[in-house]
Amino acid sequence: MTAAAQTMPAEGWTTADGRKIGPVLMEMKNITLRFGGVKAITDISFDIREGEIRAIIGPNGAGKSSMLNVISGFYVPQEGEVWFRGARRPPMKPYEVARQGIARTFQNIALFEGMSVLNNIMTGRLTMMNTNIAQQALWWGRAQREEDEHREKVEKIIDFLEIQHIRKTPVGRLPYGLKKRVELARALAAEPKLLLLDEPMAGMNVEEKEDMCRFILDVNDEFGTTIALIEHDMGVVMDLSDRVVVMDYGKKIGDGSPDDIRSNQAVIDAYLGVSHD
Ligand SMILES: Nc1ncnc2c1ncn2[C@@H]1O[C@H](COP(=O)(O)OP(=O)(O)OP(=O)(O)O)[C@@H](O)[C@H]1O
């Protein structure tokens, strides 16, 4: 941990642009993850605070996606503890983690290509649906009301992300940048407390990246969503993030503000000094 990170007030702080960063929301304590003989993550600790945009960066194979998979419950680490909202999280299935308020997007888009944009986004609300099929048969009115509420929430997200014009279009027909936006919409439909974005700008052109940056900032600002993202575009990372964790060969080699990271010699040697877009 850097000196700056050590002196951070427990209750949080206000950023230069007036956003409120709150207390610790998630804490990873001494996480180690192995795949057979391969150590993907070695003894890494860091925290994510309420309301912040936290980036995880590092060279290919550094362990970034593995870390995101630990946070979202896809992988259970052999060592270490995951704390969320002040409590230690026992090993959980990904859907249980999702119910706790953690949603994610994937490095490779994972949408239903044949389904409309609207229906894809509706799937983001599945973990929140209470009424089961038997109840629906017995008590149509309640199920209908629930469906209406879900639709209303989804429509708001569609407006927010400016995708009204494609709401009926099958996702498979959309250009790449819009697919990524639909994936973001689906994750937001779960109304997450913590949103995990795995390379949200990968494969995008400049204009698409600008749009995505704006939407990420707006989501954080308007919904108060805490965001952790993996990204290789350093311009984007340094512009968007409040704090950055740097990984290399499964170890943490830096943790601090974008300015701390830019001037961290170990980070420059391992990552920033080389081309990686
Ligand atoms: N399911 C798996 N089985 C075996 N090894 C894995 C698995 N997932 C990741 N690894 C290994 O763990 C290490 C870290 O991989 P990871 O994908 O987390 O890195 P990364 O920083 O996300 O890389 P990239 O930027 O290329 O996506 C690599 O050596 C990788 O080969």
From TrEMBL:
GO terms for cellular component: plasma membrane. InterPro entries: AAA+_ATPase (IPR003593), ABC_AA/LPS_Transport (IPR051120), ABC_transporter-like_ATP-bd (IPR003439), BCA_ABC_TP_C (IPR032823), P-loop_NTPase (IPR027417). Residues 26-274 form the ABC transporter domain. It holds the Pfam family ABC_tran. Keywords: ATP-binding, Nucleotide-binding, Transport. The keyword ATP-binding applies. GO terms for molecular function: ATP binding; ATP hydrolysis activity. The keyword ATP-binding applies. This is Amino acid/amide ABC transporter ATP-binding protein 1, HAAT family. The lineage of its organism: Bacteria, Pseudomonadati, Pseudomonadota, Alphaproteobacteria, Rhodobacterales.
